[in-house]
Write a structure and sequence with these properties.
By secondary structure, the protein is an all-beta fold. The chain is built from 2 helices and 48 strands.
């Protein structure tokens, strides 16, 4: 029930030339809930909580921006909240929860129960009625409760019901939440929105703990802190959640019915974790470098400024005043890591042993009347022509432990910035203009004809990505991304490696490409040889499902790295060749075939109601 296909931003306007009168709106403004204060009264091992479901107005971009009507939960007699009241108790607590339905239609509530089984109870509440539920929460873990009033009242709703959800956490007996633990709840809305002076339009709004970037809370820590986040997605769309600058450990995953708390051998390390509708995750990480960082969804339409209901601020010359605050919106959290006492805010740049020059280029009319973009690595004495492009961009090869300087020259007609996805580097070079850095020293946006020098010393060998972090809906969909491979010290490029870069086939994102082609060339392997397949998904909005088959039966491969980080030995084992990669994820596999044959690599592009499958011949000689 909780599995849903990917949905992307849809914006459609009425053909009416005169905006109609706004529909009447009732209810109070929803109050953002930072999930730091449990609701109800806990006394003598019993939690008593009185909740209400009623209509309110959500203002994701602040009180000065437009809002829209939704249904939401709150404590009875208190303001409605987005997300709903946090229910958090130690295991063994008896819960006595009453829910009053102040809506004009019946509401069905799920998730208020002990989760010792995967069977979900339902509580139907008629308009004006109050229902009470009592149970003992014996099973530690994290879940959410949610309500539905429309449709078949199953699953998760995109519209007026989208905010009928809240976190439900059961701590182990006697355990206190860690000092740096936070609960982050994602809520997603999509429906027709009536904005003042504009025709009604179908809009998507995505928030974290009730607000959208740049109003989302700044999470502040110090270098060396152990940070734990509980991330819950009680919504109808997927979110590949990406942390800039650091790896995090995945300690648990759930689906809204069960929460699997991983043992040490089950844990893995990532920079991007794909969260399906209804998914939950506990993640732990330790910042080792100070600076400003981001935690955000890697579907670019979920962080694009088009999500904002209000107007963007402009600079005096008409340019956007601040890239980070004005060119992004939606599902973004800012993370500020302060240096320890006596620690410099900026580490001294090591003397580069290797220097590279990379050009961000643009050519007109590559995708119909739309331009194409790419990064071109200068490989000789002469720079490439300003309009020379290749999609995908040049593969950059670095070495672990080697101080490297990369000068990025902007030959495009647009502002540019470059993010080094998965690389552990100083914040100033992370690639989010007007945000990366610390204090008054933040990275500038790179104007056309200008350049920016990036300095890094890769900590580990693996498969990474570099891509634009500016106007991504245009630049990323149209080719401004490339593979970033880090080899061991002294290593050379292995001819048995195969890079498969999964991207968009241009700004019309219903298409897809593999290594820049809508009809990819066959992949050639050598019999009796172990090949490393580096899978990279840098598409803007689509998960990719891959199968390597002989006839119709999956063959075997061995995963051994995720996001450039080696998997634990017990997870790096041979298995049927299936994989799902969300945008921003990389995975490394070993493939070995002993005899000449022809296989097929199926790459399914899952976007909205469409699933398009590319079938790539894999020729083993």
């Amino acid at each position: 029930m909780l599995s849903r296909i990917l949905a992307v931003l849809l914006v459609g306007a009425s053909a009416s030339a005169t905006p109609p009168a706004l529909p009447p709106r009732t209810g109070d403004a929803l109050v953002p809930n930072d999930n730091r204060t449990p609701a109800g009264v806990l006394t003598g091992g019993v939690l008593t909580l009185r909740m209400v479901a009623r209509e309110g107005i959500h203002y994701p971009d602040g009180a000065d921006a437009p809002g829209f009507p939704v249904f939401a939960f709150g404590e009875d007699g208190k303001p409605l909240q987005a997300p709903g009241p946090l229910i958090r108790v130690p295991a063994g607590t008896e819960l006595r929860i009453s829910v009053r339905n102040a809506l004009a239609k019946p509401v069905r509530v799920r998730g208020l129960q002990d989760h010792s089984t995967a069977i979900l109870d339902t509580m139907d509440i008629a308009p004006g009625a109050t229902r009470e539920i009592r149970f003992r929460a014996n099973t530690p873990g994290q879940w959410f409760y949610w309500g539905r009033t429309s449709g078949n009242r199953e699953g998760f709703a995109p519209d007026v019901d989208s905010h009928l959800s809240g976190a439900f956490i059961v701590d182990p007996p006697g355990a206190k939440p860690p000092a740096n633990e936070r609960v982050l709840v994602i809520q997603s809305f999509r429906d027709t929105v009536y904005l003042p002076g504009k025709p009604p339009a179908r809009r998507e709004v995505i928030v974290m703990n009730g607000v959208a970037w740049p109003l989302t809370e700044r999470l502040r820590y110090t270098v060396g802190d152990t940070i734990r986040w509980r991330v819950l997605n009680p919504g109808f769309v997927v979110h590949p959640m990406h942390l800039h600058g650091f790896y995090f450990r995945v300690d648990s995953k759930g689906d809204g019915t069960r929460d699997t708390i991983y043992t040490e051998p089950q844990r893995r390390t990532a920079v991007t974790e794909f969260m399906t509708p209804g998914a939950t995750m506990t993640m732990t990480w330790v910042p080792t470098r100070p600076g400003n960082w981001l935690f955000h969804c890697h579907l670019i339409f979920h962080i694009d400024a088009a999500l904002r209901l209000g107007e963007r601020k402009q600079g005096a010359d008409g340019a956007h005043a601040n890239h980070a605050e004005n060119e992004m919106a939606g599902l973004v959290m800012g993370v500020e890591v302060a240096p320890r006492k006596g620690m410099p805010a900026f580490a001294a740049d090591p003397v580069a042993r290797r220097k590279l020059r990379v050009f961000a280029n643009q050519r007109a009319n590559v995708f119909g009347d739309k331009p194409g973009f790419s990064f071109i690595l200068q490989e000789g004495a002469e720079p490439p022509a300003p309009d020379s492009i290749r999609i995908p961009s040049s593969t950059i090869v670095l070495h672990r432990g080697e101080p490297t300087e990369i000068t990025v020259i902007n030959n495009t007609k647009e502002m540019a910035s470059t993010h080094w996805h998965g690389i552990e580097l100083e914040s100033f070079y992370d690639g989010v203009a007007d945000w990366s850095g610390w204090g008054t020293r933040t990275a500038p946006v790179v104007a056309p004809g200008d350049s920016f020098i990036v300095r890094m010393t890769p900590d580990r060998a693996g498969t990474f990505i570099y891509h634009t972090h500016s106007n991504e809906t245009v630049q990323l969909t149209s080719g401004l991304y490339g593979p970033l491979i880090v080899l061991p010290e002294g290593g050379t490029v292995d001819t048995t490696d195969r890079i498969l870069l999964l991207g968009d086939g241009g700004p019309v994102i219903t298409t897809q490409s593999v290594n820049g082609r809508a009809n990819p060339a066959p992949i050639e392997l050598r019999a009796g040889t172990t090949h490393r397949v580096r899978l990279i998904n840098i598409s803007s909005a689509a998960a990719k499902r891959l199968r390597l088959v002989a006839d119709s039966a999956a063959v075997q491969w061995r995963p051994f790295a995720k996001d450039g980080y080696d998997l634990p030995p017990n997870q790096a084992t041979a298995r049927p060749a299936f994989a799902t990669l969300g945008p921003g994820e990389t995975m490394d596999f070993e493939v070995r075939r002993e005899q000449p044959e022809v296989l097929t690599l199926e790459v399914a592009h899952v976007l909205g109601l469409r699933q398009v499958v590319l079938k790539i011949p894999v020729i083993v000689r």
